[in-house]
Amino acid sequence: MAVVPTSLKAKGGHADRAFTILAAASAALVLVVLSLIAVTMTRRAWDALDLMGLDFFTSDRWAPPDQFFGAAAFIFGSLLSAAIAILIAVPVSVGIALFVTQVAPRWLRKPVVYITDLLAVVPSVVFGLWGVLVFSGTIKGFYGWLHDTFGGLPLVGHVFGPSSASGRAFTTAGVILAVMIIPIVTSLSREVIDTVPPADREAAWALGATRWEMIRGSVLPYSTGGLVGAVMLGLGRAMGETIAVALVIGSNAQITANILASGDSMPAVIANQWGEADDIQKSALIGLAVTLFLITLGVNLAANAIVQRTIRRNQGLS
Amino acid sequence: MLVLAACGSDSNNSSDSTSAPAASEAPSSAAPSSETPATSAEPATTEAAGEDLANLQATLDASGATFPQAFYEEQIAAFKDDAPGVTINYGGGGSGKGRQDLADQVTDWAGSDGVVKPEDVAKFKGGEFLYFPTVLAPITLSYNLPDVESLQLTPTTVAKIFERQITNWNDPAIAADNPDATLPDQAITVAVRADGSGTTENFTKFLDAAVGAGGDGTWTLKSGSTVEWPADVQAGQGNSGVAQIVSSTPGAIGYVDLSDAKAADLQTASVQNKAGKFVAPTLEATSAAAANIEVKPDLTFFTGWADGDESYPIAAQTWIIVYKNQTDKATGEAVKAWINYVLTAGQDAAADIDYAALPDSLREKAVAQLDQLVIPSS
Questions:
Q1: What pLDDT is attached to residue B153?
Q2: N or C: which end of chain A has fewer CB within 10 A?
Q3: A165, A272, A278 member nearest B249 (Cβ)
Q4: Is the CB of A188 inside 8 Å of chain B's CB atoms?
Q5: What pLDDT does A315 receive?
Q6: Three-state SS across B337-353?
Q7: Chain A environment of B197 (Cβ under 8 Å)
Q8: Can you tell me the distance from the alpha carbon of A135 to that of A124, in angstroms, rounded to the nearest whole number?
Q9: pLDDT of residue B29
Q10: Per mean pLDDT, which range of A12-26, A85-99, A125-139, A164-178 is the poorest?
Q11: A28-33 average pLDDT score
Q12: How far is A209 from chain B (nearest CA, A)?
């Protein structure tokens, strides 16, 4: 029996070293792949970026026959549709998470979690087709009502301008995206809220807090950082979503305050125009991809920073 | 067809090919007004080729235009009956992808609705290539006005509608085109393609030729697979996506190929042609247009805005592009047999699935061009 531990130890030493190298290599590989993607993509986008200069980022005019490629309208569309999605998805997701963890009776929790997670299994093209065949036709009437009701008000009126005739619009894309990111935001929020120490909650109960006061006083402050992280992750996903958005956003390169008008997003226009694009247009589309890459990178870095800061602050408080 | 028989059995014996039966039977001068073009000499040729087709062994990979995809898929299935040893995979993906794949020698042939740009010719790694026109189809102006049974539009009106200068169906310009119709006071919704498309390219080429740079300058958006539409047009994916917008939106108008317009049960407008006549989008009117156009020596052409009283002015055409110098005997022979099949038996079947056959004059030129393919003898 004395032999066994030594042989195990010897093996363990080799295995440990191999594991360390393998793990480090995997970590490095991700960085290498990411930077290679960035470099090759930028090189392939260079023709268009060189042709357009700064106009590529500032102009909202996209006219392939004139070889003029401005990405601003697509950047705007990506940000606006993702923002609408977040605006809808976050309250719903956090609501579901709070319901499941704090409010629902034990027997109801599993089914609710299961059904929310089920949303994540639906392929995005299915959401897209449903959006274009059913939802956009149905919501058109609601857009008309929004415009009739709020369109006359100062300032707000611009936001609720005339509705897109087919119902394909920034808001339609936003709603579809919201449905798509609700599962991930919900499940992350749920996990974050689950980590709230029972002692904190019980302390609130002990002080005679109502359920809402307990949530506001104990649960939310403790989980803010994690919730922001979950939201940012959802945002990243919403901005990168391609096919569902391509189907429902309406494919119009325009910058407008009217959220009921049709627009276009970066991934959607890449998917739509790649097949028939000539060389310079392809280069411009790759330029869009690089831009999208940089923006999502920025969003994720910002999310990380916010999460870290909140965690530090929470630790300082406790 | 005999060309094919010759090369399948004995590549030296090509003297038979000079007396291709199609040429002797088809009255090429009468082709322009022919109601059912390209029906000549099929039984003889397919039979003659039958045995040799059976001996062909090859797999042909291809990609490209989606407009003729349904046609090619039907023909590929039918060709398989005659040549069971030949497998053809047509991947679609768009004309641009088809040309790119052929340029990179990833595929054996490309389907393309447009011609290769001069600056891209050098990118074709296999050298010189040939265009074989295969089928045509009218692009309809489909509209959704249940109470307007027939609608006539001049190119100028079409241009103004798609540029959003005319935004209501009761506009005097539309009324002037349709003296007998009662036009409703209804806003026009314009439906266009969201994706880059040969249909957009052919539609805008027609407008550019009729009333754009080639005409009075009404149309200013030029032509291309993607153009800079006004902000308030509605965009759908593919012909079926545009058809869906038109069918679900009262007052909508969009450009849709004939088979999708029929599938969606849409109303289609008659469009004024170069001769000043209003012509409905039919397969016959499209073949008639193709018979009246100027075909370049390399068999490239644009079917839109053709001369002739019977010609429908908006049409798509498509080509199979192959390298002139084939590098493999089996593949080369299969390519030749396949293109020959599309140009002969395939033409008869085209109308069944809403594609217009080539006029005889053009078809003969294409068949004759098959002789230019250089196939290695081993």
A1: 97
A2: N
A3: A165
A4: no
A5: 64
A6: HHHHHHHCHHHHHHHHH
A7: 276
A8: 14
A9: 42
A10: A12-26
A11: 93
A12: 54
Give the integer Cα–Cα distance in Å for B191 and B194.
Answer: 9
CA end-to-end span of chain B: 21
Q: How many CA atoms lie within 13 A of A149 on its CB side?
A: 6
Tokens linked to A10:
């010897």
Give dist(CA A273, CA A285) in Å, integer.
8
Nearest chain A Cα distance for residue B103, angstroms? 13
**Confidence category of residue A228, pLDDT binned at 50, 70, 90:** confident
pLDDT at B368: 95
Extract the tokens encoding B251.
Answer: 């007052």
All residues of chain B having their beta carbon less than 8 Å from the beta carbon of residue A66 are 222, 228
Residues of chain B with pLDDT under 50: 1-48
Question: Shortest CB distance from B224 goes to which of A64, A250, A272?
Answer: A64
Q: Using the 8-state DSSP alphabet, how is residue B114 labeled?
A: S
Distance between CA atoms of residues B172 and B178, nearest Å: 10
Higher pLDDT pick, A195 / B316: B316
SS3 (DSSP) at B157: helix
Confirm or reject contact between B154 and chain A (CB < 8 A): no
Q: Using a CB–CB cutoff of 8 Å, tell me whether A261 touches chain B.
A: yes
What is the per-residue pLDDT for A233? 85
Using a CB-CB cut-off of 8 Å, the residues of chain A touching B223 are 65
For A68, the enclosing helix (H) or strand (E) is strand A68-69
DSSP E strands, chain B = 58-64, 86-93, 109-112, 129-143, 152-153, 189-193, 234-236, 252-257, 267-268, 270-272, 278-279, 315-323
3-state helix, strand, coil in chain A (%, to 5): 80, 0, 20
What confidence score (pLDDT) does residue B171 get? Answer: 96
Query: Any CB–CB contact under 8 A between B248 and chain A?
Result: yes
Which pLDDT score, from 0 to 100, does residue B50 have? 52
pLDDT band at A197 (very low <50, low <70, confident <90, very high): confident
Residues A94, A223: Cα–Cα separation, whole Å: 11
